[in-house]
Amino acid sequence: MTEATLTLKKPKSKAIKEKQKIAYLFVFPYVLMFTIFIVIPVIAAILLSFTYFDAVRFPSWIGFENYINIMTNDEVFMQNVIPNTLKYAIIVGPGGYILSFLLAWVLSQLTHKIRTVLALIIYSPSLTSGITMAVLWRVIFAGDNSGYLNSILLSLGLIVEPVIWLQSKDFLLTIMIIVTLWSSMGVGFLAILAGILNVNQELYEAGYIDGIKNKFQEMLYITIPSIKPQMLFGAVMAIVGTFSSSGIGVALSGSNPTPQYAGQLIVNHIEYYGFNKYEMGYAAALSVLLLLIVYLFSRIAFKLFGSKDE
C-alpha cells in the first residue's frame, strides 16, 4: 500500500469518527431518559420483588416468598384477576387489533376528504383519558332510571326495574371491554392506515396480472405482507395497552377492588397492594409477572410480523 493511499484513508477515518461522535451526542438524551425512567425502575422492581417493603421501613430480603404467596395464597389473583385479565386481553387485544386493521383498510378505499374526517372521528376517543370516558359511560350505564340504557330498556318494556350495570358481577367486565374497544383506535390504527396508504400501487397491478381476483386476495397477498412493520408496531401497542389497562374498571365502578372483583385486572391488583395496603414488595412481584407476560406476547408478535433477521 502506497503512502498516498494511507494519507487519503486517515482523513476519511477521522471524518467517520467525528460523525460517530455527533451521532452518539444526539442519541445520548434518549439513552439517558430510557435508563432513568425504564431500566432503573425495572431493575428496582425486580429487586424489590424479593423483599418485604411497606414504604416506611427499609426493605427486608425474603427471597421468593412473594412469588410463592402469589401462586399459593392469593385466591383473588388466581380465581379472579388471572381469568379477568386473560378474558379482557384475549377480546380487547386481538379484537381491537383486527378491528384497527379492518377499519384502516376500509378507510384506505375511500376518497381523501371522507377518509380524513372518518379517521379523525375514529381516532378521537383514544385522545380522551380513561376517567373522561368513564364519566360519559357512567351516565349511559347508570344504575337508576336516569341512566340512558335503563331508560331505553324500561321504555321498551324489556326490563321491569333498573339494572345496576356497573356494580354487577355479570356485566362490569363486559362493559369494560366495550368501553376499551370503543377507544382502542389509537396510534396503532394510524400507523396501519399510513402503511396501507403508502403501499406501492404497482404491486396491486402486478398482483392482478398474476391472478388476484378480488379485494380480499389483494389484502391477503399484497397489503398485509407490505405493511409488516406497521402491523408489528400496532400489535405491540395493542399488547402493551391491553395488559396495562386498569383505570377503566376502577373509574366505572368507583372502587378498587372492583365490586366482587368482577373487573379486577392485574394492574388493579398491583395498585391495590401497592397504594392501598402499602405492600410494595408484593406489588413489585406482581409487576414483574406482568412484565414477563407482556414480553411473552410481544415476542409472539415479533414472530408473526417481524422480519426473519430479528
Folded structure, characterized:
The chain is mainly α. The chain has a domain at 76-131 and 168-305: MetI-like fold (Orthogonal Bundle), CATH 1.10.3720. It is built from 14 helices and 2 strands. The chain has helices at residues 3-48, 65-72, 75-108, 112-123, 130-140, 148-155, 172-182, 187-197, 201-210, 215-226, 228-243, 247-253, 266-276, 280-305, and strands spanning 51-52, 60-61. 28% of the residues are buried.
CATH architecture of the domain at 76-131 and 168-305: Orthogonal Bundle
Number of helices: 14
Structural class: mainly alpha
CATH superfamily of the domain at 76-131 and 168-305: MetI-like
Helix coverage percent: over 70%
Identify the strand order in the major beta sheet: 1-2
Q: What is the ordering of alpha helices and beta strands?
A: HEEHHHHHHHHHHHHH
* End-to-end separation: 39 Å
What is the name of the CATH topology of the domain at 76-131 and 168-305? MetI-like fold
Low-confidence stretches: 4-9
Percent strand equals under 5%
- The number of strands is 2
Radius of gyration: 25 Å
What form results from the Cα inertia axes?
flat
Largest sheet: 2 strands, antiparallel
Kindly report the average pLDDT value. 84
CATH class type of the domain at 76-131 and 168-305: Mainly Alpha
